[in-house]
């Protein structure tokens, strides 16, 4: 039989090499067709008496990333469609669908012939669950190997036998740690955890896998043998008596109970280790079906898996524009941001010229890249040769004429209109007519800056977030005259440096900063009301935010907040800013000299390491303090999430953001908006517009008019609409 996604070669020793190599895809993924073919391969190899065993490997540089995006989407679509007709029948269909992969892997595991998985590159999710069902596992020692069950990061969990096999191969604590965090393992770490049997040099991978079969590998999983005991002795041991009471408490401390999938992992392992393996698989299937029906799973998969991939692959790229292969990028401004932008550009293999006022300043900027390379080499993420090659692509210069052959120039100079005007004019004097100019401004509107350009159609904003090498989001800002070619080039550049873009129309603060400052300003309100600072920070984290608003303001810099408040008043008038906020911030900056982390004094004190930061005791003296028992933590959590979601809704209503996917992905990647909600707009859609509007009205009555729902939200509530329904990002595709 001929297969589309696999090839089979049987050698003289009777070992069949099954190579997974999907045509037209950069990485192998599970689809319905792949599972059908794998099922047929199991049958064929079992039926063929000449086949003594099977080695399963990938024909690509990576093994597999797991499930295909379209398969995940179809699973949710099927459930949503069926649920409207018959909820009970929909749940049963979902249960059966969930069990398909579980059943396929169990069939492989019990087929009677030994299978060995030969793992190269990335092996994640369902691909690693398939490997766990094989009787032997050999991994390449290449540093590109990443083994993980990361499903919890997108709202689900390893539901094709992962919770049952991992917890029977390694100790329960390590199994829980791996699955509830979604952490990636090196090949060596996976071997230490007993999840793979051998780690070999890349060129020995297939030979070692075949040798396992030649050496008499038993075609029986450990848990199918009589007398099997889980590592550590299972549930009823003294060690387990220490682990299991603590595990839910630790999970709640880390997640505040916001992630149903993480809790389901604990239940699957705890219950599954007390029963026979096949019963454990049914328990896992039941919990997986339940989790798939939660709002959290639906929203997280949509935003963090589907939308993120779609945006990363150019969902917002203008049609008809040829792809740009960037041969050279210029960065003007060798301060920390500019130097970091140069570093990520060079890391993507693109030569970059780093310009500053003199060669000393430009060379100092390259030093930022040298520090990042040294750190990566020290952590084993990069070899010395790779680091040397990366740095060779960064050329410091003080001569603007060195930009004469650049395809794209990004300015990252001081946030001052006159300084930027001078840079724009100097760059355009040498820039070739085919090149695009981008500004990394974080506060100044792009349309205003473009007035200094002779080519406003080729002028665009590309807004990075600090630290550039870690933050995955980039805002692409459109001025009023920005043309399609500029958008296409900017998106091609963002794709090249492996970041996720959102396309935003021009406005003060763009999208992310508007939402971030609403978060910070709500904390100002709470401080002024007398809410203890520790409660503010803890409530924000309990709501799902990764960093408290006061700690975040310290990172942004309190004096920058002060400048922004003053600039807002200057541009928009006194009513644009709450005077109490200005008073609070000016008191910290001018009265106390507390600028944030940068001078070790902000809302927190930052003592020399290894001591940890702590809230500044003087905060409690700024305003009369409420008693902790008089503060409703649940309301604090609501206020944080609602104020950010409201701001996101305003950007949609104003036409700043036009695609709900971008608001959701931007809010999570930009500042960590409670990922379990799926993002700021999914938070509203998840509870329904009417419920959200009612909540806004309630908060507005108690805490101020900034909580009043917008006209758009009221209209959506009256019509029973959602953001993804009213602003359907796939409408054009459907119409076509």
Structural description of this entry:
It is a single chain. This protein has 736 residues and is α/β, with parallel strands linked by helices. It has three domains: 6-293, 2-enoyl-CoA Hydratase, Chain A, domain 1; 329-509, Rossmann fold; 513-726, N-(1-d-carboxylethyl)-l-norvaline Dehydrogenase, domain 2 (Orthogonal Bundle), CATH 1.10.1040. The chain is 51% helix and 11% strand. Helix 18 (484-496) links the parallel strand 16 (473-478) and strand 17 (500-505). The protein is globular and about 80 Å long. The mean pLDDT is 94.
Strand arrangement within the widest β-sheet reads 12-11-10-13-14-15-16-17
Q: CATH H-level name of the largest domain... which superfamily?
A: 2-enoyl-CoA Hydratase, Chain A, domain 1
What is the CATH architecture annotation of the largest domain? Alpha-Beta Complex
Globally, the shape reads: globular
Say what the CATH topology of the largest domain is: 2-enoyl-CoA Hydratase, Chain A, domain 1
The major β-sheet equals: 8 strands, mixed
Number of domains: 3
Number of helices: 30
N→C terminal distance: 37 Å
Amount of helix: 40-55%
Low-pLDDT regions = none
CATH class annotation of the largest domain = Alpha Beta
Number of strands: 19
Strand content: 5-15%
Q: Give the rounded overall mean pLDDT.
A: 94
